[in-house]
Amino acid sequence: MLRRFLPVEPESREAGTGALLLVQVNLFECGGMAIGFSISHKFGDATTLSTFINCWTATAYDQSNMLMLPKFGAASLFSPLNFSNSEPLPYVEVDKEKFMTRRFVFGASKIAALQSKVTSSVVPKPTRVEAASALIWKCKIEASSRSSSNMLGTSLIRPSIFSHSVNMRKMAVPPLPENLVGNLIDFSTTNYSHSGENTTVIDLKGLVAKIRGGLEETKERYAAVVVFDSNEAWQNMKWYINLMKNDDIDKFICSSWCRFPFYEANFGWGKPSWVSYVAVAINNVTVLMDKRDGNGIEAWVTLSQENMALFESNKELLAYASLNPRVTN
C-alpha cells in the first residue's frame, strides 16, 4: 500500500534512469497528508535526503538563519577515474514476485533488554543498531539453515557475510560535513562460519563483536584520508557486488537510517506521526529506521518467501520484535 504514496515504482526503469528527485503529496479525506520521496542513489544517499528535507522544512518556516544548505563539491574528494578500460558493475537481481518484505518493530524497552543481553567484555556498550542487527543476522542464519535442511534432508549452516552500509562522512578523519551532498557510503563486512549442526549454539554476543569489529576495520581504512582513490573504490565496489552474487555463501545486508532527524521535519502542520522506508525487492536486505520516540527501531526485512516464513516465526526474534503492529494508537 505504501508504494501508492510514491511518485515512482521503486523497481521500475524510470526509478533508475529518470529524475534525480521526485516528490508526491498525498491528501486524505480525514485531512491527513503523506509526502513520498524518491531520490536516485546515483545522486545522493540517506544523509543527502535528510539534508534536503531539513532545508525544505526550514525554508517553509522562513528560518533562513537556521539553514544548513546542501554543500556540493564532493567530487573534489575523489581522484579522477578512467572509465576507458572499466567493466560495468555486475547486475543486482530485483524481483518483486520472488521476495517479500516484513516490518518488525522493536520497542524501546525490548531494545534495551536486547542490548543488555548482548553486552560482553569485547563490546561493553553495544548500540541499538548493533544489537538489533546481530539478532536479525542470527535469525536469518537459522532460517537459511532450516531452509537448506528442508531441501537436503540434513541441517546445514552455510557460511555467511554480514554487510553494514556506513556513512563515509563520519568515517573520514577529520569528519566530512554532514550536509555534503553525494552517495558517500561504503560497506563494512564481516563473516560467520559454523562447525556443527546445532543452530542453538550460534553466539549472539559473538555476532555483535563481529559487527563491531567490521565497523572498526572500516574506520581504520579511512583514517587520515584526504583524497579518496576512485580506482580503488571502483574495484572495491566490483569486489563487493561479486561477493554478493556468490551462491556458495549467504549474504545479509543492513542499512541503518537511525538517528537521521526525519521525525523533526515540520512543513508547518506539525511533525510526522510516522516515517517509513518503502522496500526494494532485493533479497536479504534489512533497513533500520527509528521509531517516533527515537529509542525503538523498525526493521524492514526482505527475504525469499520460503526463508521469510521461517524467519518471521522465530521465537527469539518475536520475543523482542512485533510483526507489523499498528503505526499509531
UniProtKB/TrEMBL annotation:
InterPro entries: CAT-like_dom_sf
GO MF annotation: an example: acyltransferase activity
Lineage top rank: taxon: Eukaryota
Pfam families: Transferase (PF02458)
Keywords associated with the record: Acyltransferase, Transferase
Family: Belongs to the plant acyltransferase family.
Protein name: Vinorine synthase-like
Species annotation: Prunus yedoensis var. nudiflora
Taxonomic path: Eukaryota, Viridiplantae, Streptophyta, Embryophyta, Tracheophyta
